[in-house]
Structure of Uroporphyrinogen decarboxylase:
Amino acid sequence: MNLKNDLLLRAARGEKTERTPVWMMRQAGRILAEYRAVREKAGSFINLATTPEMAAEVTLQPVDLLGVDAAIIFSDILVIPEAMGLPYEMVEQRGPVFPSTVHTLEDLQKLHVAEPETDLKYVLDAIKITKKGLAGRVPLIGFAGAPFTIFCYMTEGKGSKTFSVAKKHLYADPQFSHTLLQQITDSTIAYLKAQVAAGADIVQLFDSWAGILSPEQYRVFSLPYIKQICDAITEVPVTVFAKGAFFARKEIGELSCSVVGLDWNMDIKESRELIPDKTLQGNLDPCVLYGSYEQIRVEVKKMVGQFGTQRYIANLGHGVYPDTDPDKVRCFIEAVKEYSSL
Ligand code: CP3
């Protein structure tokens, strides 16, 4: 189906756009009262994520309520470990927890490469329902965690400031680490291909914990696996967002992806120089949205001025914080549209 608004896809492909497309990481979530109502009805995050009709409903909400130029399918990066045989729980106010974790090659024999058509059918169904609901209004973004970030959760079992349990394995048992990273990579490639077949128009890889690695470790334990995924997904544009990996921008810029996401620690001009031939996405500090309407407009104008209106997808530098006022979010989105119109 032809899209009525394909700004995001044109920007991703490096084509001219009459204005900069804008969306927000974590836009389908707790900032919206309408999300919280569906979440309440579902009873739990996991029930919401695994019920395709409800997942589709909250995916559509930001398109209707915020005016973003893309929808992102409501799910989580942790569905991949679950599909591989390592289930997670979402603990209220605390975040994800894995009741069991993996630490030895023997543990890995109990896992399997995810089979998306069975293990992740609920996500594929949610994508199909969402595409019908969108009726071509805006593109749909699919996503997955980058292998290293998924590795962090599967070994550490929960969030952490240092992920020292996860990182210990990289030094102490590189063979275990590479075997698990490859299993995750194979699962992710199958999963993203299935998302595209179900209707995803572009896919994003979240390497949320990239910033805890040294440049050398990043080159050994993260980049090669991201590269395999970028090389395998040829059907649609791929976005790589490696939070905190300012030191790897040049290498990420050389991958076969179309878009590179930036966080707010990354200087815009320097990033353009390091990544000259790709579309950039980002990178407003989510805390700017706690400022006044005037402050938000000033910061957005500065950001668009630095990126320029072309080869650019406006976003925050990480997910929007749950206690952000939706009116401030609307101000951010409107400001991008206004300041980037040719
Ligand atoms: O709108 C969207 O972006 C789509 C939905 C989405 C969720 N998680 C829903 C969610 C996406 C893209 C994610 C990705 C995700 N999940 C990442 C990568 C992006 C990032 O933020 O770095 C990571 C690291 C996770 C793992 C995860 N899921 C954590 C650490 C938490 C707890 C912290 C938190 O935000 O609550 C989650 C829970 C989660 N995932 C919620 C939502 C809406 C909140 C739970 C709820 O609503 O009950």
